[in-house]
Amino acid sequence: MPEVWIDMLAVLDGTARLAAPLILCAMAGLVSERSGIVDIGLEGKLLAGAFAAAAAATLTGSPWAGLAASLAASVMLALVHGFACITHRGEQIVSGVAVNILALGMTVVVANALFRHGGHTPALGAHERFSAISLPLAETLREVPALGSLYAELVSGHNLLVYAAFLSVPLVWWLLWRTRFGLRLRAAGEMPEAVDSAGVPVSALRYRGVLIAGLLCGLAGAYLSIAHGAGFVREMSAGKGFLALAALIFGRWKPLPVLFACLLFGLLDTVAPRLQGVDLPLVGPVPVALVSVLPYAMTVVLLAGFFGRAVPPRALGRPFVKEH
Amino acid sequence: MTALPRWLDIGVLPVVNLALAFLAAAVVVALVGEDPLEVFGVLLQGAFAPGALGYTLYYATNFVFTGLAAALAFQARLFNIGAEGQAMLGGLGIAFVCLSFEAVLPGPLVVILAIAAAALFGAAWAVVPGWLQAYRGSHIVITTIMFNFLASGLMVWLLSGPIMRPGQGSPQTRLFGEAVQLPALHDLARGLGFEAARSPLNLSFLFALLACAAVWVLIWRTKFGYALRAIGHSEEAARYAGIPVRRAVVVAMALSGALAGCMALNEILGVQHKLVLNFSAGYGFTGIAVALMGRNHPAGILAASLLFGALFQGGAELNFEFETITHELALVIQGLVILFSGALAYMFTPWLARLLLSRSAARA
Q1: Which chain A residues touch B345 with a CB distance below 8 Å?
Q2: What's the CA angle centered on B34, arms B31 and B37, to 5 degrees?
Q3: Which of A75, A271, B11, B87 could form a disulfide with B263 if both were Cys (CB 3.0 to 4.6 A apart)?
């Protein structure tokens, strides 16, 4: 097998791993924002989920209990956000900031109280995590030229939550664009008055939107601490929630473009460390720190509307006041 | 929504919301298995014990700057959540001036230039999102978030290469000379014949007080401030009244960024005397809590900054006194304050109105 091919597979494999939590968080943001609720609290939900998963997996020894705890923690924060933004029509940005800071503080405080380990959880053993799944026939097909290694190296051998991430894209698409619920949810984010006059309660739709966002962020959190990683480390979300937000905007609130944005950002993240010490002609050594902020720069340029245009759902961020 | 009389809105509601935040924090402490009263006692003692007050005021200085930054933008209903990045740039401005000119210009002049550079660099980092919002319609919340990450990438790159202290591996610049440092207040006090405990509190605290006064004058005593408040009430109406909304948005963001940049005066010019990575340490976000709690008014911001200063200083004490509660409790309280005084600010409006107003109505 040519060396380049192996390198390329390794890069793509790394891209899939780094993009997985981005995809889950970006889909979470997509559902919430399509229903009209801005979600800058993706980061906080992700972090809370990651901690809850690691803590529950440590205490029970089961990754499934970890996953359940992660979903519960993330959904709880999502409901706080919903309570503030939907029930009390509070500022959605402010509520999102509160969720992020609350998660940052709570995870460390509870981690210290439970494990007295400087805000970390103890390292998890192999049976306490979601481990790599070998897809059927991966080994048999490995010897088939090109496609065999592609299947064995890239498609097979990920943990359950990576597959869940990639599966979430068509699922979200189907839910939002092929069901009656999805049509109404999107309408709540575009023209809530119309939804309301059709006799469908806007607040119930939006609550479901933030709830689904909570579940998806919970999956992403579990991925970080009990699938990709082996335990919780303080601030382990490290801006991934915000990167997902950038991907959501970069993909213009549409599932497939958002997926591509996540993959692109994941690819940049995979490639950046490999560029350490590489000299480019004319430029000199590659400034790796600057490569890693490219996604943010590209999102700003897109938002500025110099190429293309990112138009958010029309009623995004606007509390719905029912007229009597 | 029920409108409350002014005294209730400004006097009672913030206290109720703050009490609620602390109540929720007490529940967290109790669930963790400690006695909330004991924990809050240690917090208070840690914040106001003799010798600790200087630290409390030093933290408060950071929060005054970032709180004013958030509040000034809030007046025009702009969410500047980029104070973090703007503060980093402010630090970069200071380092740039100090490292380039300390050898050639007299100390006091360099300090003045450094202060100007902190404000200017911070303003520059905020003007771009402001301009993009005003003229290109991109949402300021998103762009300021992105600019935080861009600033942090820029700092990592600069501090691990071009401006890194020669011959050393850690991401920081070399120390500035003694002539270009802001004097510590305990040194100034000694010069005047008082004895004060050593603390990182420095001259920037006085600058912070001046900034409070300046922001008050700007918002309530100038035409520009009137324009900002008009935009905050209704952008549409402001435009019809002939206010140049776009320009005002850009200028408001510039001033907001300048205030955030000045946070670096305290941290870099006053305490660290060198540019280090992550010196903004989330204080930019705390500024949002401070502005919300202070109802976007300089006097309120000063009070809220003192409270958060006490929380941060007292929080450090928790690490020594308890096995299970650490200073991150301050972050939990901060999040709860943002939740209750910000996002849920009016949860109790109808309830308060019924409770207090019906009584006074009955009396009348």
Answers
A1: 90
A2: 110
A3: B87
Maximum pairwise Cα distance, chain B: 78
Domains in chain B, please, with CATH? 64-311 (1.10.3470)
| CB-based contact, B30 to chain A, within 8 Å | no
| Percentage of residues in chain B having pLDDT higher than 90 | 68
CA A84/CA B347 separation, integer angstroms: 9
Which residues, 6+ apart, have CB-to-CB distance to B30 below 8 Å? B36
CA distance B290 to A320: 28
Q: Which chain B residues touch A242 with a CB distance below 8 Å? A: 145, 149
Report the distance separating Cα B118 and Cα B261, nearest Å: 5
Contact B153 A289 (CB under 8 A): yes
Position with higher pLDDT, A144 vs A87:
A87
Whole-angstrom distance, CA of residue A277 vs CA of residue A288: 9
Chain A residues lying within 8 Å of B335, measured CB to CB:
98-106
Long-range Cβ pairs for the range B301-304 (8 Å, 24+): B301/B64, B301/B67, B301/B68, B301/B71, B301/B212, B302/B64, B302/B209, B302/B212, B304/B63, B304/B67
Strand partners, A133: A158
Strand, helix or coil for residue A133: strand
- The single-letter code of the amino acid at B140 is I
A73: chain B residues, CB-CB within 8 Å: none
> Could you identify the residue written with the tokens 């040519």?
A2
Closest CA to B325 of B13, B37, B15: B37
Contact in structure between A300 and B147 (CB atoms under 8 Å):
yes
Q: Which residues contact A276 (CB under 8 A, 6 or more apart)?
A: A286, A288
Which residue from A minimizes the CA distance to B135?
A304
Structure tokens at A149: 């290694």
B212 to chain A, closest Cα gap in Å:
23
Query: Measuring CA to CA, which residue among A141, A188, A150 is closest to residue A8?
Result: A150
Q: How many residues does chain A have?
A: 324
pLDDT in tens, A204-262: 999 999 999 999 999 999 999 999 999 999 999 999 999 999 999 989 999 999 999 99
DSSP annotation of A227? I
B330 to chain A, any CB pair closer than 8 A? The answer is yes
Element (H, E) at A132: strand A132-133
**For residue A234, what is the nearest residue in chain B, using CA coordinates?**
B328
Distance CA B260, CA B280 (A): 10
Distance from CA of B323 to the nearest CA of A (A): 8
Q: Which residues contact B342 (CB under 8 A, 6 or more apart)?
A: A90, A91, A94, A95, A97, A98, B288, B289, B292
The structure tokens 């703050």 sit at B18
Q: What is the ipTM of this complex?
A: 0.91
Q: Report the chain B residue with the minimal C-alpha distance to residue A92.
A: B343
Q: How far is B332 from chain A (nearest CA, A)?
A: 5
Element (H, E) at B236: helix B235-240
Q: Mean pLDDT across the stretch B154-174? A: 86
* Structural domains in chain A plus CATH codes: 3-303 (1.10.3470)
Confidence (pLDDT) at A186: 96
Contact B325 A109 (CB under 8 A): yes
> Residue A204 and residue A103: Cα distance in Å, rounded?
25
B292 near A CB under 8 A: yes
For β-strands A284-285 and A132-133, DSSP reports them as unpaired
